[in-house]
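subagent[fold] <- orchestrator: predict structure for attached chain, return tokens only, no commentary.
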Amino acid sequence: MSANLEELVEDSVLLQCRVNGKACEREIQPGTSLLDFLRDELRLTGTHMGCMTGHCGACTVMLDGQVAKSCITLAATVQRRQITTIEGLKGADGKLSPVQQAFWDEAGFQCAFCAPGMLLAATELLRDNPDPSEDDIRRAIAGNLCRCTGYQSIVRAVKAAARVQRSAG
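subagent[fold] -> orchestrator:
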């Protein structure tokens, strides 16, 4: 083993966390982004790589229930935290969450590149505010860029998800 490779192995960090409800333990390099960890190590490719500066929202995940941009979060900083990716929104039975189903039913997306950010932001919003106004919805999704829909269908989908969740609750 070369000296450089030995140094890299010695500099690794043991990351222990929960991803989509499952325990996860991996050796990672300290500079690994959470986005790269999710996509490259865990093969959770629903979290998209967009701007790499935290502006577009395509890389959005939830950390302990709060939305976060995984491209600007170091994986080593999520020690013992709960990470939810877009893949983790569906139920254990494989059914879409009410938010995912509403986006499907309301044609909330065209290309869906922005889906992680929009769906997770909507999920967080509806958890905290079950009856949001259009302004509330627009504020909640403001950190996510959509290049396709003009946001009308996204707002409509979040309103529909709110109605479904209120009627089920």
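orchestrator: received. Logging for downstream: Residues 152-168 form the longest helix (17 residues). The two ends are 59 Å apart (CA to CA).
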